[in-house]
Amino acid sequence: MSPWFTWLTPAILLLLPWLVRDGVGMAQTTVCSRWDHSVGLDDLGLSQEGDVVIGAVFPIHNLPPAPDLSFSQPPDLQSCVNFLEEPLRWVHALVFAVDEINRNPFLLPGVRLGYRVLDSCGQHPWSLRGALALVSGGNLTWPSSDSHVPLVIGDASSTQAIILARTLGPLSVPVISYQASCACLSDRKEFPNFFRTIPSDVYQALSMARLTWLLGWTWVGAIAADNDYGRQAVFEAAVRGTGVCLAFFETLNRANLVRDVERAADTVQASTARVILVFLWYTDMEALLLELGRRNVTDRQFLASEAWSTSGQLLRNPALFNVSRGVVGVAIRSAPMPGFEAHLRSLHPSRRPGDILLKELWETEFGCSPGAAHANDTSLSPRPRLASCSGAETLEVVQSPFTDTSQLRVTYNVYLAVYAAAHALHSLLSCPQRDSPTWGSSFTCSPPHNISPAELLQHLNQVNFTTPLGEPFYFRGADVPAVYDLVNWQATLQGLLKLVTIGRVEGSNILINQSAIQWNTGSNMVPVSVCSDSCPPGTRVARKKGEPVCCFDCIPCAEGEVSNTTGSLQCDRCPLEFWSNGNRTACVPRQLEFLSFNDTMGVTLTTVAVCGAVATAAVFMLFVYHRHTPLVRANNSELSFLLLLSLKLCFLCSLVFIGRPSVWACRIRQAAFGVIFVLCLSCLLVKTIVVLAAFRSARPGAGQLMRWFGPVQQRGSVFLFTSVQVIICAVWLSISPPLPYRDLGLKGSKVILECEMGSVAGFSLVLGYIGLLASLCLLLAFLARKLPDNFNEAKFITFSMLIFCVVWMSFVPAYVSSPGKYADAVEIFAILASSFGLLFCLFAPKCYIILLRPERNTKKHMMSI
């Protein structure tokens, strides 16, 4: 509302008598002088005397914007033109309701209800002036100056209703609006005297927001009237419509309608939003649709507010067919009014000679003048004089907005407003006896001839009755329970548009038949209007900084996270035993990973190990066959056979590391590895000691040395060295043995099944003891490398120990840094590499002599220097 009205209201109230009786009449004379006739506020002929008279204000005419209209020209100097048939039907809903009430013996018995109707012309000054005239009783034609009304029904516009409520509030005059839906009017502290029979825009905005979300529209534009109705409605839709973003927000001011319509059309044409929410009066919407049609912008889906969603003027305009086809809107609920159509079609100027508006209706429908409908033979618009009607004209067969009763929406609201006023008056005039127990101080009563508006206001707050249709009616503060129809503009075979009801809104529940909707494309497929397409399963929404929440990027879920719904805001972590599939849409059980006999690495290592074992067995068989030759018998052949047996076991023990780890496999593999290798190294160490002892015993005074290194001592030494490792392994396995372990954190989609060491100290002792024996063997073999012999075995032991030490020194860092099955592969490789090193370095030269140079396999050749 304009700021000037806030401070002007007290002045208006102080000057009320003068303004109504003198100023209003003077203003009327001024206005009407521009029409060349003089018409008072009451000269519409729409009034009826009664014991109690209710007042009403309707926008029966419209003041269209003119190029010369500006704030410098007083609004009350503008002519009221453009007769509107639908508001006239609203007027006769009041007349029809009053007639019903007067015929009802149970409602206001003995009291005749009257009415007084004025035209607001859809303008604030006219509406305010009319309301002040009604409540003060000021007029030119009524005989009694006490004919003021205790209640006003009107006006249609939210801004005008605010003006009336604020102006009449200090006088406690109730105002019941049939179409003012601004949410601000629900404030009982600011508007304690205001009521309405239309739901608040809070509910309409919530319904439209829920509808856009239900239909999948998250990126919408909005165009609203630049007044309380439009601004409040769009604000509610934007804030309360969770998930719905406004691509743009344009306002239209009726004072600058042409310029604002062009700007709004430019915005609609340039925007990517395909759905437009529109909160406009139907006359303003018509101008916008015409402009969009002129630009051939026909691919937009409009979501209409109740102010224009059922407008017959727009539906019947063929120029709007292409641009407005498929409109979906929230509409005021429709209800039947039995007998109302017959009432409308029975109207005739001859039966209502003073009704100027009925005369204008006749001129509009039949193109003729029914005669002097007024004493001065005047009309409210500067239309040319027409030929007189024959008198045979009738509304019985006329199809027009006035006679159309198929969708009674605002009309029914007016009907309910009259009944609410009547029941409040009935309650006021039917007060209990003062000595009754129900009599109290909360209610006061008045006689019919002197009704106090303040007392009527008290009873209106408590109104609760059943309508003629059997529905309960009551006020929640200023409001009524929210009920809406959902409508759709559908094309007919005749190339016209018709209004089809497709659903209903009751409170927060939306019932809609989507299959019955005809969209702007002519199909049943719901249009798409989004800033960003919904993120598919397997991705999540990533907000764009500085952009609306509806504009986002889709980021794939990380490994181990999934999203199985469209438009997920975050990805969910899979449980430990599960991992995300390739599309990141579901958690699947993790694959067990271990070194198996089926994968390539396992097959390769198994083949190499078997080959090593076969080669060792072949050497063993060769040595058995040539066991009596000097080369085999030299340096204790028994140790050589034991060494070959231990090497074969070294090759075979590597196979224990391949396959699914189990409790016994984990315990055996490390113990077998440690004991077998110690057996192998013990044989080598004893052989090296024997070589050194043999050559030392050849020196003078050392003949008894070999007595301490005979076969028994050699076997005992091997057994002793091996027993130490057996004891270490036994203690390790008894205290903290290796066990199968599922490692869930290394390979993502795979669970690493491996053998956990249990005791790092135990494994370190096993490796340390092997290293100790290998170091002693290397040291002794190195010392014996230059002893005189044609076949000095110490040299080959030295080379084999060098290979062994290098391999196992490299093993430690490689083993620690290798994950999962690769750690087992590294250990197997170290076992096989060191085993092959020992096999080839120790036995390849002997096999060469046995097989290829048998002449060297003699004692003489071996003893020669």
Explain what you see.
The chain has four domains: 45-64 and 79-198 and 338-367 and 402-429 and 447-468, Response regulator (Rossmann fold, 3-Layer(aba) Sandwich), CATH 3.40.50; 201-335 and 482-516, Response regulator (Rossmann fold); 539-590, no CATH class; 600-738 and 750-864, Rhopdopsin 7-helix transmembrane proteins. 43% of the residues lie in helices and 14% in strands. It is built from 24 helices and 27 strands. The protein has an eight-stranded mixed sheet with strand order 10-9-11-12-13-16-17-18, with helices on both faces. A six-stranded mixed sheet has the order 1-5-2-6-7-8, with helices on both faces. The termini are far apart. It comes from Hucho hucho (huchen). GO terms for molecular function: G protein-coupled receptor activity.
Number of strands: 27
Q: What are the low-pLDDT stretches, counting only 5+ consecutive residues below 50? A: 1-43, 65-73, 140-145, 372-381, 433-441
CATH architectural group of the largest domain = Up-down Bundle
By CATH's scheme, which homologous superfamily of the largest domain applies?
Rhodopsin 7-helix transmembrane proteins
Named CATH topology of the largest domain: Rhopdopsin 7-helix transmembrane proteins
Kindly state the percentage of residues in helix: 40-55%
Strand content of the residues, in percent?
A: 5-15%
Give the overall average pLDDT: 82
Biggest sheet character: 8 strands, mixed
Terminus-to-terminus distance: 126 Å
Spatial strand order of the main sheet = 10-9-11-12-13-16-17-18
| Structural class based on helices, strands and sheet pairing | alpha/beta
Determine and state the CATH class of the largest domain.
Answer: Mainly Alpha
> Mind telling me the C-alpha Rg?
52 Å
InterPro entries: ANF_lig-bd_rcpt, GPCR_3, GPCR_3_9-Cys_dom, GPCR_3_9-Cys_sf, GPCR_3_C, GPCR_3_Ca_sens_rcpt-rel, GPCR_3_CS, GPCR_3_vmron_rcpt_2
Domain G-protein coupled receptors family 3 profile: 601-865
Membrane topology: Multi-pass membrane protein
Subcellular location: Cell membrane
